[in-house]
Design goal:
2 domains; two-stranded antiparallel sheet; Glycosyltransferase; single chain; globular; three-stranded antiparallel sheet
Length: 688
Amino acid sequence: MRNLLLNFLERLESSIYKFNGNGNGNGDGNRKHGVSELPKHELRFESKPFEVDVSAALQKKPLDIAITRSQQYLFHEQNQANGYWVGILEADTTITSDYILLMHFLGKVDYEKQRKAVNYIIDQQLHDGGWNIYQGGPREISASVKAYFALKLAGYSALEPFMQRAQKSILEMGGIMKANCFTKIYLAIFGQVDWQAVPAVPAEMILFPAGFYFSIYEMSYWSRCIVVPLSIAIDKKPHVKVGDDLLKELYLVPREKVFYRIKRNQAGLRWRNFFIDADSFFRRYEQHPIKFIRRMALKKAEKWMLDHVDKSGGLGAIWPAIINSIFAMKCLDYPENHPALVSQLKEVERLIVYEGDKLYLQPCVSPVWDTAWAIIALQESGIHNTHPALQKAGQWLISKEVRHFGDWALKCKVEEPSGWYFQYANEFYPDTDDSAAVLMALQRISLPESAHKEKSLLRGLRWLQAMQCDDGGWGAFDRNNNKTILNHIPFADFNALLDPSTSDVTARCLEFLGRVGFSKTYGNIRSAIEFLQKEQEEDGSWFGRWGANYIYGTWSVLSGLSVIGEDMNKPYIKKAVRWLKSVQNSDGGWGETIKSYDDPKLKAIGKSTPSQTAWAVLGLLCANNGNSESVERGIRFLTQGQKEDGSWDETEFTATGFPKVFYLKYHMYRNYFPLFALGRYRNLTQES
């Protein structure tokens, strides 16, 4: 395998690359750490340019006009200095509430920022007094408790009418003790709940070696980054004095009468009860830890945290990990000018979005993801692959390739690191979904320094193959991160401790592999297709882990299968097509409420949105339904819903952080996915 790859590198000077393999032609027996032999035929790393002239819009056809307007809008949104695109990544109020908590924890309140954050939180309050975790959703207990506490810290009295409504709503949902684990930890830091309410998060976890069943490396990347600094803070048990009875009105029973022990599961779930017993043991251990082991664990946890802050936009480049690292550093008595602490605080400020007299915080930023899809949409819609804007964006993406080994390398052995992350910087944590999207974007455009691009593509290809899991699918950040019994750990109530293979990510990886010459004849491709077939729902749809929800999953899978060369007339494909057509709304669009994650009966039910309509149209186009009435109605919905400036409106959340717990609204989804669908439709109908 190594000789094959070295041979390929020697041929990088030619503009078309031929690969002379010496394997058995189907990839069987040639996998090394998940990598199958590269295709013997031409590797299609250079995309054939479209010959579509943008001036064709002068024909005044509604489709051409819509495409041109959308292209112009995206070009206007591009960062002119560096070439990337980035839209706002909006979440719920919990992060903005956390920001107020953080200022009070540090004892440094910027009252103007606090005022604007409070304006946002109050503005998001529901009529029933609570706060939700996605637009149009029902009230949610943890979001409501955090919002109420933030408002209390900001000086609002419990007697304010909106605070009384909030109090009533929280009590109706079960009171403060129904909040999730991480909310209780933050409240314990401020003395609002007893530390007994917090499940054990022993620092000694960091001492378990990689490969051990309960190692931190068996958790998802985001869990690792959240839990390691949190274990330091929990050991120190800080107490920020704001008045320990500030939230007494949120208890159903007096605080001193709360029963803290976690009840064993009466249904006999063996692993659930095992972890409840383990939690009880570690709670007792917390009172009298073995001191030299605890010191060793805290030192290792601290080193791990500091090491992973390096080359990143904050720890893990995500909000919960960043704020937890600040808590940990302050608990370790870091001075205010400590470089690591200063850098984390700067990353917090970079997440702020100002809107008039309000502000809110993003959970992270999405420039790599947004840039990849903007390139794909523009190129698919007729922008030439040598266009300066695409070239500049492509060069920026190449500069974001990971060139250092991260946590993923413990289970994924490659000679050179590669991959792409989601944010501006997150060197330890590239992910397969972003990497596949970036590789597809780069494959579509032509760059002046083509050899540089080809090397990145080849490294990315090898890395992506090596990240394939043993079940045939791909997870997002890690390989074989699927020990489901760990979901029963009490502090894992945020429903996302693991990062197993998912249909949408697997399909994205297949789509890229298909674009560069892989086909069903390869063993690793066949296993991926088999994984997708097993994951298909009874009605023909696929679950969407990272996008809402079954519409997103079904589009992703149909796209991946079509490009990899699957027969799109197979019964299971036709079943998916029938499902997509059956859930189209009367206005021609498609929509799906986030509630479908809680109740699958609500799948594909919801107000039509531009992004979800685009996904459905793209899915049908992949299945050779370009001339169907369903597609034509979907295209009309998109063209008629477009605004004069070339953009679309979309208030709904259509993306997913953690199913049932945390959802997202990508502000650019409503623009580049419709353009992608319109462009693909025009190309296919012009060819037919």
